[in-house]
Structure formats: C-alpha cells, structure tokens
C-alpha cells in the first residue's frame, strides 16, 4: 500500500495561535480556566486540555464571576462580550484574526446601511459570532436555492461575506447566484475564505485522482475538515472523516492500493502520525509526502499574553 501524504495539512496559523493562547494561560494562571465553546473544533485537542482541568462551556452562566475566560478561535458576538463584562470575567481573545476580519467587515457595512448576505452554515460558532455583530443587517444563506428566496430588490445596497471555512467551490456557486440575481452586489475587498482552508482543499483536488481512498483527520464538527471529505466523495472516491487511528476499519483497505491522507486545519499532527504508523505496521504502507503549496503564515498572541510572557522572562 502507498500513502500520499498531503502538505500543507493540519493546524493553520489561527488554530496554532488559539492553542498557544490556552497553553500560555495555563502556564500563567494554572488550569482553572474556562473556554467559551471548544477552543478549536477537534476532539483530541479538547480532550487533552479537559484532562488537564480546563473547562469548556456553552453558557457563561457556567463560569463563576471573576474567572478567566478564553474566547475560542471561532469568535463570539458582542452580546457574549457584554455578558462577560457583567460577570466581571477576565477575558482573553483567541479569535482567529481572519475571523475577526469578517466581523469588522460586517460592522463596517452595517454602519454604511448595507444589507449583508452572509454565506455560511447555520449554527456554526463562527456564523453565530459574525451575525451577532449586526443581526438586523445580516441574512444567512447556505445554498443557491437560499439565494432564490431572498426578497431584496435591485435597488438595495447589498454586500456578501463568507464563513472562513467553506468549500471554495460551493461558496462560488452561491456567489455566482447572488451576482446573477443582484448584479450590483459588492464583495469584501479580499475574499473571506481563509488561506489554510483553500490550500487544504487545493491539495485534495490535486492529488485525489492518484488515490483509491481519502482519509481526512478531523472531527465531525469541523467545517473545514468535512469539506475535505466532501471533495473526495464528489470525485467518486471512498472518503472518511476520522478523529484518529482507532476509527480505521480493515474493510476500507481490502482492495485499496493508494491512500491519500490529509488533516483539517484544527487536527494535530500527532493523530496523522498515529494513523501513518498504524498503516505501516498493518499493511506495510510506504509514505510519499507531496507539497502542493507552501505556507508560512503566523499570528502573534494577543497583546495581554505577550506582555505576560515578557514579564515572566
């Protein structure tokens, strides 16, 4: 068996920054720390921090007054920030800067009296946070059919924004339908789908025809990881989204000669290596790592944590 190992894969700069934020907080304050929602959408990462004593919550009512609270990489709404202040929580913002960019765009266009069409998945943490910036101005759509149901006129001031972790192709289908219905609709100055999402999708599209089976390391609630699996399925390949080697099924490999492996932007490299080792041991797999694009993006820690680092040093 041959394994095509995609590069780039795994952690993006925003996920790296968010995890570093939590690790730095643990060093500074201990593990009696709360995180609003999952720090990133990955079971391995969340379980690792939970085992150390970090508490992940879905409601701020679960956080005692005066506690330390991290906002996850997916961002939060102004309503959550206001509630945190009311509860006298010490907050540290681990929101990915690319998500913050979309929030700022929503605020800017809402102040300019635009109707904002947000392309994204209903209920996703990032979408909830973005819509919270200007709920009276934002309408959510997910598919071209949703666009057909919009009631705006050609004279309305319209702009579209997107969730950062969408399938590029699916987002483009919605954008094309928007432009057909509303030729004057405006777009963000720079596309919202993040570089890492785009690069990982590009790698799958480029390599998938050489493989019989696609394995995506990532959790079921990870939007960008699901999109990678869906690309493989759309190409007529077997494709599975798994959290780790324990979910591998022997029957998947019965007639397979070439396996492609990648990882979503919130999946740690350790789970990739565990799967590779398993395939080597069980099937004598050989590994060929193929780089389709170079990545060198990094994001600094929030200012407050950088200051704490400096004081400690």
UniProtKB/TrEMBL annotation:
Q: Which transformation does this protein catalyse, written as a reaction?
A: dimethylallyl diphosphate + 2 oxidized [2Fe-2S]-[ferredoxin] + H2O = (2E)-4-hydroxy-3-methylbut-2-enyl diphosphate + 2 reduced [2Fe-2S]-[ferredoxin] + 2 H(+); isopentenyl diphosphate + 2 oxidized [2Fe-2S]-[ferredoxin] + H2O = (2E)-4-hydroxy-3-methylbut-2-enyl diphosphate + 2 reduced [2Fe-2S]-[ferredoxin] + 2 H(+)
Biological process terms in GO annotation:
dimethylallyl diphosphate biosynthetic process; isopentenyl diphosphate biosynthetic process, methylerythritol 4-phosphate pathway; terpenoid biosynthetic process
**What are the GO MF terms of this UniProt record?**
4 iron, 4 sulfur cluster binding; 4-hydroxy-3-methylbut-2-enyl diphosphate reductase activity; metal ion binding
Q: What Pfam families does its record include?
A: LYTB
Listed binding positions for [4Fe-4S] cluster are 12, 96, 194
Which residues are (2E)-4-hydroxy-3-methylbut-2-enyl diphosphate-binding?
41, 74, 124, 164, 222-224, 266
Q: Which UniProt keywords apply?
A: 4Fe-4S, Iron, Iron-sulfur, Isoprene biosynthesis, Metal-binding, Oxidoreductase
Which pathway, per its entry?
Isoprenoid biosynthesis; isopentenyl diphosphate biosynthesis via DXP pathway; isopentenyl diphosphate from 1-deoxy-D-xylulose 5-phosphate: step 6/6; Isoprenoid biosynthesis; dimethylallyl diphosphate biosynthesis; dimethylallyl diphosphate from (2E)-4-hydroxy-3-methylbutenyl diphosphate: step 1/1
Going by the entry's taxonomy, the superkingdom of the source organism is recorded as: Bacteria
Q: Which InterPro entries match?
A: LytB/IspH
- EC main class here is oxidoreductase
Bound cofactor: record note: Binds 1 [4Fe-4S] cluster per subunit.
Q: Which cofactor does it need?
A: [4Fe-4S] cluster
Where, in this chain's numbering, is dimethylallyl diphosphate bound? Answer: 41, 74, 124, 222-224, 266
Chain positions recorded as isopentenyl diphosphate binding sites: 41, 74, 124, 222-224, 266
Q: What does this protein do?
A: Catalyzes the conversion of 1-hydroxy-2-methyl-2-(E)-butenyl 4-diphosphate (HMBPP) into a mixture of isopentenyl diphosphate (IPP) and dimethylallyl diphosphate (DMAPP). Acts in the terminal step of the DOXP/MEP pathway for isoprenoid precursor biosynthesis.
Q: Which family does it belong to?
A: Belongs to the IspH family.
Q: Which NCBIfam families match?
A: ispH_lytB, PRK01045.1-2, PRK01045.1-4
- Name the record gives this protein: 4-hydroxy-3-methylbut-2-enyl diphosphate reductase
Organism in which the protein naturally occurs: Thalassoglobus polymorphus
Q: Which gene encodes it?
A: ispH
């Amino acid at each position: 068996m041959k394994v095509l190992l995609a590069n780039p894969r795994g952690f993006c700069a925003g996920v790296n920054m968010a995890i570093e934020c939590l690790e730095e907080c643990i060093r500074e304050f201990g593990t009696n720390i709360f995180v609003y929602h999952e720090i990133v959408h990955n079971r391995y990462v969340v379980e690792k921090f939970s085992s150390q004593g970090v508490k992940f919550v879905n409601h701020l009512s679960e956080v005692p007054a005066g506690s330390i609270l991290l906002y996850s990489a997916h961002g939060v709404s102004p309503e959550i920030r206001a509630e945190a202040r009311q509860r006298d929580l010490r907050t540290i913002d681990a929101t990915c800067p690319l998500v913050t960019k979309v929030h700022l765009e929503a605020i800017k266009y809402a102040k300019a009296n635009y109707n904002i069409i947000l392309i994204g998945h209903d209920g996703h943490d990032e979408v909830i946070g973005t819509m919270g910036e200007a709920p009276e101005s934002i309408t959510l759509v997910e598919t071209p059919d949703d666009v057909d149901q919009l009631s705006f006129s050609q004279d309305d001031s319209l702009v579209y924004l997107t969730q950062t972790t969408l399938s590029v192709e699916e987002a483009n289908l919605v954008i094309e339908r928007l432009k057909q219905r509303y030729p004057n609709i405006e777009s963000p100055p720079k596309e919202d789908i993040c570089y890492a999402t785009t690069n990982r999708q590009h790698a799958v599209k480029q390599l998938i025809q050489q493989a019989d089976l696609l394995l995506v390391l990532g959790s079921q609630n990870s939007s960008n990881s699901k999109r990678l699996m869906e690309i493989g399925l759309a190409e007529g390949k077997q494709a599975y989204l798994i959290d780790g080697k324990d979910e591998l099924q022997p029957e998947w490999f019965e007639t397979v000669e070439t396996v492609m492996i990648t990882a979503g932007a919130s999946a740690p490299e350790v789970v990739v290596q565990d799967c590779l080792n398993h395939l080597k041991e069980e099937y004598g797999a050989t590994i060929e790592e193929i780089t389709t694009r170079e990545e060198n993006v990094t994001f600094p820690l929030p200012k407050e944590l950088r200051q704490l680092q400096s004081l400690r040093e």
